[in-house]
Amino acid sequence: MFWRFGFSPASNVDALLEKEGVTLEELFEEEELLQECKSHNSKLIEFLCRPEILQQLLNTIITENPDETKKFKYPYLAAEIFGCEIYAVSDAVITQPNLLESFWTLLDRPVPIHPLQASYFSKVNGILMQKKAGDMVEFVKSQTKSISNILLHVGNSSIAELLLKIISLEEIPEGQGIVPWLSQQGLIPSLVERLDPNLDIETHNTAAQTLLDIIAVSYQNVGPVEQEDGSPANAGGGNSLVDELKSEAMMRKIFGYMLDKTAPNASSALSSGVIIMIELIRRYCSEIEQAEFQQHQFQTQMMQSTRVNEFGIMPTTEKMKSLSTDLNELLKVIGEKVEDFSYLLEHPRNMQATDTTLGRVIPLGSERLRTCELFAEILHLQYLYFSSPLFERLVFGDPPEEEEVGPDGKVGGEAESVSAAAGTDAPSAEPVVDGLSNAVAEMSLKRLSGRNVADELSSISELLVNSKVLPMCLILFFQFPWNNFLHSVVYDMIAKVFNTYSFTSQSSNFAPVGPDGNEIVPAPGEEGILSPLEVKMKEVSVVFKKLVVSILVEGKLTLRITEAQRRNDFTVEQPKGVRLGYMGHLTYISDEVTKLVDKCLEDFGPEVPELIHSDEWQEYLTGVLKETKDRDRQALGGVRPTHTGQTANFGKVDETDMPPLGAAPPPKKELGGGLHHSAPATGNESDEEEDEVGKGSDSLTADGGDVASDQMARFICQSIVNDFPDRGILGDESDDDEDEGLGEAIQDELLFDETGFDVDNPFPDKVSSISFDEESRADSIDQSDSDSYISKDVKPPAVATSVQESGSPLHKAVLTAEDDAVSDDGPAVDSGTAGVSTPSG
């Protein structure tokens, strides 16, 4: 931190700037240039703000230097100088429009422009938009060919990113108005025209990706549902660019490109167009889910709060109106083209046989896969829309505000709606319930003019049934057993159809509810009268019933599943045979069929029960399907090990049968012949001893479990110390000294025993189980091994004498036990007699 006190040495940049006639190239050669820019060197900033220097900086970025050593270095440094976000430099560029105009001449060049120059160009403009957003918006609007030039080079990722940055300026106050201006400049029509099937595939991909980015940015920039003053900020999702894209004119143009029968790249146009449609539908679904969450929060707070002004905000009426008709034009055009898509599923364009590992086959192709994906997304929208808790508001709208007629005959005293009630304390619960009565709902239905999303979805479902789209998708499912992309799409289609019908066929799912989430009780005398909501759900249920029948009867789903199972069994039995690729999805589809049958079998005519009750299907359910589901329910790796029975004691040692290490065995009775035996013990005695030991351990645990555990831990620790491998002849004097100190410390801690726990012989009543043969075999142990039985607690003279009298290690152990009372301070055993040094604990 010497520079704080003026002790820092002068930089080379300062020394260079003091020279007369310094050039920008000389600065570029200084290694400290960028560091000085980041530290906001005043002399350097003053130099960079000169108009001629700024012109050189911008020209360095857009001009290719013929010198290879400067070709990459100088443009990089020029862009990084702007990247230091020096406000004076950005302000100097903005205040001189001629500098920006010359800088934007890069877009006047023919395609393609250098990617490095395009990236630096986009970076500098992005920084200027952050610092001077309002001025940059005005500059872009002042350029007559700015948007057309950007679209000319939109295939360059950096230029496409610049376009998204311009659209994103709409979310800040200084940039408001840029999106309507872009719409007036024909941005969306220009991008849609690039989906022309006569153009190359790269142009299609670029246009589709740009439109997808515009959709994403437009929905991300949507502000709050309501502003602080309570007025709606943006009723629908997206902006004017997205609204223009969803218009009927644009949709017809895109679908015309997608279904062109003669153009060379119609398949690419269809794939790009379907991606755009799917993105628009998914964004609409997310808007519905967001509104559902908002209403759920309102209802939760309404039940938990006591004051009305704490209820939060429900989705506004304007939002509901926008959602009810937002995709009308898109769905209308799709409905008109269902038959054309159905024809493509049977007769794909430009499909030729291809050599594969399975032989020469005709592939599925992107056309048919994208078509199935489009229909699957529409069926997903149907499920989300018809099962939404906002369905009543989406279809019938919010009830009109009640009006009162005053004494003067004028209308007044309007009751506030539920959404307005969220911010005031005026309304009561009773007018809200009356406002959602059947009569008001019918008035709301009459008030709505034209068709809504629900009507368009129902029409598309009817067309799917008439065109037999779902049976065709099933045929493709079984025709291409190794295309899992197709299998996932078809499974999703079947699941959504079955689930939608299961929901709409249950009358309890769409009983009218109030804003608090509670079911509205019908007025007296209206119990048997169906509400408009129930009537609408009945109509939807009838349509989806046709779709279910189309899948089960016309598509012969159950028969195809059983045939596929037999085909799979035959394939597996062949040499090197493997399961077919769709068997996993068939299990899922079978589950969906089973759930539908359990709920709604009685709703169908005789054709469906006949298929369900067939012998083949029942055999499949009770046989293969049940075995598969049972196997899938099993845990990976087998049954989880339990801690009961013998498994609980696996790896453990029975401490009652283990003599303590370092302690002498119990004394042996001398029999005839001079041999030593253990006294024979009867079974009753051993059982009684084990019972006593068990009772003793239980009492220790019950009365003082911590004490018993601590004593056992100390005993094991002493045993480990006594059993170190470096004992005896392998240990040197230094090790013996250290071990002796450690053993004495442990012995001192064990002397505190308050419960009569004998650390040297914790089980005094346990009779040795060493047999006659074992003792005889033990006599053959050599002298070095037998010496390891000698404990430091044995009195050395007695041990030496015993060793001379008998070479048996058991004999020595007995003598050791007889001398347990000897003090630990005795002299060490004579190494010449015993052959070892005295172990130290």
Automatic annotation (TrEMBL):
A single GO cellular-component term on record: nucleus
Region (Disordered): 398-429, 632-705, 753-841
Entry keyword annotation includes Ribosomal protein: no
Assigned keywords, A-Z: Cell cycle
Superkingdom of this protein's organism: Eukaryota
InterPro entries xrefs: SAPS
An example Gene Ontology molecular-function term: protein phosphatase regulator activity
Biased composition (Low complexity): 414-423
Homology family: Belongs to the SAPS family.
Protein's name according to its UniProt entry: SAPS-domain-containing protein
Organism field: Rhizoclosmatium globosum
